[in-house]
Amino acid sequence: MEDEVDRLLEAWRRERPDLDVTPMEVLSRVSRLARHLDRARSQAFEAHSLESWEFDVLAALRRAGAPYRLSPGRLLKETLVTSGTMTNRVDRLAARGLVERLPDPADRRGVLVQLTDAGRDAVDAAMADLLAHERTLLGSISERDQARIAGVLRELVRPFDLEKH
Amino acid sequence: MEDEVDRLLEAWRRERPDLDVTPMEVLSRVSRLARHLDRARSQAFEAHSLESWEFDVLAALRRAGAPYRLSPGRLLKETLVTSGTMTNRVDRLAARGLVERLPDPADRRGVLVQLTDAGRDAVDAAMADLLAHERTLLGSISERDQARIAGVLRELVRPFDLEKH
DNA sequence: AGGATTTATCTTGATGTCGAGATACTCTAG
DNA sequence: CTAGAGTATCTCGACATCAAGATAAATCCT
User: Fold this and answer.
1) What local confidence, expressed as pLDDT, does residue A165 receive?
2) Residues 6 or more apart in contact with residue B88 via CB below 8 angstroms
3) CB atoms < 10 A from the CB of A62, how many?
4) Full strand arrangement of the beta sheet holding A69-70
5) How far apart are alpha carbons A94 and A27 in whole angstroms?
């Protein structure tokens, strides 16, 4: 069964028969699937009145474990955004009462961002929903194939994980 | 060998042992890899003074074949952006001399966007570079695995391809 | 033919992000 | 102890995007 990428590659092969476009068989599909997953995620979070970017921050704090407290700097690394963006995100999450800013007792330059109870409840509920939805998406793929593909993707991601140290 | 997603999932399993997070073994890696690919793409295009979004539009026109001419509406569907975005993109590409707007002789509401020679040269060079770079990224994956993973990804994307229209 | 609906594109205002720079504090070397 | 380098966070301006609405033209229906 054909998909959009098959059509895309067919067009390129017609127009540029000199190029070998097979890398796109994998990588274009990764990009397109990721775009679709983003939209699906947004929809899953809508039921919990969370934006994707809100979930990203809350989830990083939740994963950190009690007392659900991280520095903005640490949050940057977890969420791969810049410092200006994180300031903005924390501002909005604090305004919604999902996190609060605490002064870092060990470094007066620093700040700690901590999940409130409401924030924890929100992220826990959203996470359960997200996983349920993702399980549906993967429904047609055998566990064996899922494990295989996860292994290949791990190899593909590794060079990038390494370069940022 | 571990990657960032392994660490992520380990944290979730510690904090929420009640949840089954295995869907993320595949889907989180897809999302993260896509983000890395975006950055890599941007870098590859830098040598040609193209932004990713510029390439997306030029590539859609290039794929269409001579005379490299599409309506804005058609470009929306190819690039998955909104009409306001496309107006903006075409404006900028026209200002750079990479495309030009022509009136549609068959529909006076309509416009046709056409690649200039400079636009065609730019996208052809960028495409060759992009593929070279992508081939490097996939270097460690056997052709057999690439074909396998492409097949699984095609299945995962299909539901999304279907739902639009 | 004429009025209503649909279609194609552009305009506008809001949003989230980035990147560069500012500020305040900490650490290190001498 | 202090000067300089380094670090953590925030501020600000620019930018690409989206969503909703405006405009204009084509198409449909009676």
Assistant:
1) 45
2) none
3) 23
4) A69-70, A111-115, A99-103
5) 38
A65 and chain B in contact, CB less than 8 A: yes
Q: Do B13 and B21 contact (CB within 8 A), yes or no? A: yes
Q: Which pair of tokens denotes residue A99?
A: 């996190």
**Measured between beta carbons, which residues in chain A are less than 8 angstroms from residue B23?**
131, 134-135, 137-138
**How many Cβ contacts (< 8 angstroms) between chains A and B?**
176
DSSP B2-30: --HHHHHHHHHHHH-TTS--THHHHHHHH
State the Cα–Cα distance between residues A18 and B6, nearest whole angstrom: 40
User: C-alpha angle with apex A40: B36 to A4, nearest 5 degrees?
Assistant: 70
d(CA A10, nearest CA chain B) in Å: 9
- Return the structure tokens found at A105: 């007792």
Judged against a pLDDT cut of 80, whether residue B163 lies above it is answered with no
Partners of residue B33 on adjacent β-strands: none
Q: What whole-number distance in Å separates Cα of residue A24 and Cα of residue A3?
A: 13
Residues touching nucleic chain C (CB < 7 Å)? A 51, 53, 80-85, 88-89, 92, 107-109; B 71-74, 83-84, 86-88, 90, 101, 104, 107, 109-112
List the nucleotides on chain D closer than 7 A to a protein CB.
Answer: 6-13, 16-21, 24-27
pLDDT (tens digit per residue) in A106-136: 999 999 999 999 999 999 999 999 999 999 9
Task: State pLDDT tens for residues A24-76.
Answer: 999 999 999 999 999 889 988 999 999 999 999 999 999 999 899 999 999 99
